[in-house]
Amino acid sequence: QKEVEQDPGPLSVPEGAIVSLNCTYSNSAFQYFMWYRQYSRKGPELLMYTYSSGNKEDGRFTAQVDKSSKYISLFIRDSQPSDSATYLCAPFLSGGYNKLIFGAGTRLAVHP
Amino acid sequence: KAGVTQTPRYLIKTRGQQVTLSCSPISGHRSVSWYQQTPGQGLQFLFEYFSETQRNKGNFPGRFSGRQFSNSRSEMNVSTLELGDSALYLCASSLPQSEQFFGPGTRLTVL
């Protein structure tokens, strides 16, 4: 079993749709939960992160963590064509220095 | 502030050769991490360097090695290249226990 499982998609939605991206993880010691966005031919960029369980909102993006079920989600409201990218979840262990363990990444396409 | 730079951006090698990739971190960042990205395995951690010392290592064979210089620039080396080493190699730099900033990557093709 992989430490982080993520459906690779692809996911195709119309502009304005609400998008839900999800990951599961196996290590209950993870404390930080990152979401990275990667555009084609670019390196990943940090979109947002949460600490422990709960929700965090940043504009059209909401990250949600349920540590009891080891389930993390990213919601995108009013999706735009510019949101078309690969989204990678990456749980992080504090004290694990800078070793990020990434999910497979979900490729999202938002069409006008 | 300039971002993470990686050179070269593209590289073509043949099996059995060796390759060296370079990464210049953001000014002031002393931690540099390397990742391999392939369609089949996704993004996988290779190793991390901090103040010229390897602090963490992923599950890769010894053919993969790296080093960091006193100016925090880092290089990674892959010896005896195999077809399966074809990948995008990403470098990331950060301050301690802080966000990692990724470079654009070096795309390595092994023929």
Descriptive notes:
The complex is a heterodimer of chains A (112) and B (111). With 112 residues, chain A is mainly beta. Chain A has no helices and ten strands. Chain A has a five-stranded antiparallel sheet with strand order 1-3-8-7-6, with no helix packed on it. In chain A, a hairpin with a 2-residue loop joins β6 and β7 (61-66). The radius of gyration of chain A is 13 Å and the shape is globular. Chain B is mainly beta. Chain B is 0% helix and 54% strand. Chain B starts with a strand and ends with a strand. The interface between A and B is medium-sized, with 18 and 24 residues.
- Return Rg of chain B in Å: 13 Å
Percent range for β-strand residues of chain B: over 45%
Structural class of chain B: mainly beta
**Looking at the structure, what is the overall shape of chain A?**
globular
Helical segment count of chain A: 0
What's this entry about, in short?
The complex is a heterodimer of chains A (112) and B (111). With 112 residues, chain A is an all-beta fold.
Key features?
heterodimer; A: 112 residues; mainly beta; five-stranded antiparallel β-sheet; five-stranded mixed β-sheet; 10 strands; 53% strand; B: 111 residues; seven-stranded mixed β-sheet; four-stranded antiparallel β-sheet; 11 strands
Q: How is the secondary structure organized here?
A:
The complex is a heterodimer of chains A (112) and B (111).
Chain A: E1 4-6, E2 11-14, E3 19-25, E4 32-38, E5 45-51, E6 54-58, E7 61-66, E8 71-76, E9 85-92, E10 106-111
Parallel strand pairs in A: 2-10
Antiparallel strand pairs in A: 1-3, 3-8, 4-5, 4-9, 6-7, 7-8, 9-10
Chain B: E1 5-7, E2 10-13, E3 19-24, E4 31-38, E5 42-50, E6 53-57, E7 64-68, E8 74-78, E9 87-94, E10 101-102, E11 106-110
Parallel strand pairs in B: 2-11
Antiparallel strand pairs in B: 1-3, 3-8, 4-5, 4-9, 5-6, 7-8, 9-10, 9-11
